Amino acid sequence: MTEAPAAKARVLFVDDEPRVLTTMRILFRARYEVFFAESGAAALELLKSQPVDVIVSDQRMPGMTGIEMLRTARELNPNAMRILLTGYSDLNAIIGSINEGEIFRFINKPWSNDDLTTTVARAVSAARATQAVAARAGDPNAVAAMAADSASGTPGVLVLDDDPAVPPKIQAILGGDFRVFGATSMDAAVTHLEKEAIGVVISDTRVKDNAVVSLIGTLKQHRPELVSVILTERADAGSAIELINQGQIYRFITKPIHDSQCKIAVNSAQKQHQRLAQSPELTRRYEVEQTPEPPPGTATVNVGLLERVKTLRSWARRWV
């Protein structure tokens, strides 16, 4: 008996410029069932009756920004993958999209058609993996609703920061429910990861004048159940975009540390780690781009250190 062909994935494009939507129609109509909206409000109205697999939205639109729309879209359709098109650097908007919209990718305008089609295809694949997990659970919104249940304890929290006072401060904020390990260098951080069961990494964007994006990205590639939170006072739009595209960071919080914000972020990150450990298929939602080669003369993470990251064992089985 011949199996019925799989239904086309459903992709919603949101942009206030009709010419952009025309371009999207030409690029994607042969591959997917496509939907279009010229405003955030129109997109949300459509989502009330049309579940989709992927949402691709412009950021700067009149009336409602892309991030505002995606935040509400996440409530209406939590399993959909979310991609944001942005043509300008607005740090607050980018941080908001990380913390509230859980963006799969940022794509800069003007975009490369090849990059855009590849990114949408990856998002579709991730959405299908999510649906498989939800189907097994018998709940179409299982990814959002799945309880984080740890049978044998709570994995540790690794804090990577130049300032040795930061880890004990975070330990004091989190209390006795968490084991916090501190590291003031990337080498020390990897040593902890080799020896301890770590579920969440909290890191500044730079340590010892080296950007952490290569380390965070390599960790996500080889330990996809690990969840990263960025804690920094040196935020900039470019590094935030790199950290989501190449490292799929989970939350972005700024110094000075606010107790409640920190505790909420780490609790949420720990639950996210446990979800990913329980259902490895969900890590497809957080696949990262390959880290590009740095420009000559740029301070980079030691190659040997990244090779150690690639050999890290997964501790996931200990915690599910």
TrEMBL record:
A Pfam cross-reference name: Response_reg
Keyword Phosphoprotein attributed: yes
Domain of life: Bacteria
InterPro entries noted in UniProt: Bact_response_regulator, CheY-like_superfamily, Sig_transdc_resp-reg_receiver
Alphabetical keyword list: Phosphoprotein
Residues covered by the Response regulatory domain: 10-124, 156-270
GO biological process: phosphorelay signal transduction system
Modified residues (4-aspartylphosphate): 58, 204
Region (Disordered): 276-298
PANTHER family linked to this entry: STRESS RESPONSE REGULATOR PROTEIN 1, TWO-COMPONENT RESPONSE REGULATOR-RELATED
Protein name (record): Response regulator
Species name: Solimonas terrae
